[in-house]
Amino acid sequence: MSANAFVHPDEIRSMFSSAMSDMYRAEVPQYGTLMELVSDINRQKLSADPELRDGLAHNDELGRIDLERHGAIRLGKPEELFNMRRLFAVMGMHPVGYYDLSVAGVPVHSTAFRPIDDEALRRNPFRVFTSLLRLELIEDEGLRTEAEAILAEREIFTPDALKLIYLAEKNGGLDRIQAEQFVAEALETFRWHSDATVSLETYQKLHDAHRLIADVVCFKGPHINHLTPRTLDIDAVQRDMPKRGISPKAIVEGPPTRNCPILLRQTSFKALEEQVYFVGGSAKGTAGTHTARFGEIEQRGIALTAEGRKLYDTLLASVRHAVQVSAGGSNARDYETELAERFAAFPDDYETLRVEKLAFFRYSVTKAGRNAVENVDLEASVNDLVDQGYLRADPIIYEDFLPVSAAGIFQSNLGSDEQKNYAEQSNQDVFEQCLGAPVADELALYAAHEKASLEAALETLGVQKNVA
Ligand code: OOG
Ligand code: NI
């Protein structure tokens, strides 16, 4: 490799996520404790469940278990989102999906910046859930103007970060020295600042409008508000958090425990109260506190088709209608029971999920299939070929987020008395204008992945078929 060769975006992403992880562990020690708990439980789970271990090994995922994590940030103005897209593109992360959280009383809309192709996901799946504040949802016009004026003053990227983004775009990549500098400069944007940019009085006014608005508007930048390792047993982590002095949110968001995990299950520990200084008062400022940063864990399962997702949404809505978890979480058990009972209606074996087209699979030719190439019945259906043992179908893992779960994570860290109903409709067009690009449709990505794997497998078997 010559000295000037470009560093692969996947590698820059790995450098960045590892630097973020180090920074966050140093800034939020409780996150380090959570990471240790997760790694202990992953190890136990792998040694107790050889089938799980083999499955992960087959999909080449064993190596990425301790890597898998996501983070989240909240931005204040359109140009921040625009430049954030450019920054993440340098690391091979692109906007996928549109999430409207105003329907759940959180005045933001969001996307996830993430690697898209299989190879890139395998190398490092790090994603960042990125929200943009919707200032138009502040009812008080005076306060809205004030918030806009405060945000207009700030620049969340360092001049060198912007310069390196420009260079990467112009030259098509960054060399080793530039990539290292880029990671260091990019990190500055996500760092915690204990100095607020406003007085305590202004903070309080914005806080009263919505706690989230104060979090976005009153600081120098969009501090990373959580990082999320992957766990192989989320129920065990939820159960054991208190044993390590960590206080979990009341319930695990998403589907219940199942034999065949679907979509995404998440839980978090509650945001910590941290000391900050507001403008004014003594030279150092006025001491106060702000609550924003927490830790989260995730467990991912198979990606669902539109039909599977409809069933999931319907069942979840009926559970949430039947049991509303109280602020203190005293009825969390009722919720869990209801969730498990209602989701009994969701098929829980991969074969049914596949045959009923509820979930996405990656197809490959088995050894038996390769041996039988000359004798394969050309009229056989895909299901026949699977039944005959010539084709193998493995789950495609869900790489995105869930709006109802995300709202639950937001709310548990904002205090559950913050529920507000915004009349404003979701607005993907406005979001994409701010972003400067369309967001990719996640269902289309999974469908294309499944289709490509099936076409390649059928070609190997010598079967010509129109794959829908
Ligand atoms: C983002 C909350 C959503 C998730 O994993 O669903 C999220 C935030 O609090 O900014 O991270
Ligand atoms: Ni999260």
Descriptive overview:
The chain has helices spanning 9-27, 29-48, 50-58, 78-90, 118-123, 141-152, 159-171, 176-190, 200-209, 211-217, 234-240, 306-322, 332-342, 350-355, 367-371, 382-387, 403-414, 428-435, 442-461; strands at 69-75, 94-100, 108-114, 127-133, 195-199, 226-229, 264-269, 273-279, 286-291, 295-300, 361-365, 391-395. By secondary structure, the protein is an alpha+beta fold. It has two domains: 3-303 and 399-437, 2,3-Dihydroxybiphenyl 1,2-Dioxygenase, domain 1 (Roll), CATH 3.10.180.80; 361-395 and 441-468, no CATH class. Strands 2-3-4-1-6 form a five-stranded mixed β-sheet. It is globular. The structure holds 2-oxoadipic acid and nickel (II) ion. Nickel (II) ion is lined by residues 70, 72, 129, 226, 228, 296, 409. Its EC number is 1.13.11.93. Its cofactor is Fe(2+). One of its GO terms (molecular function) is dioxygenase activity.
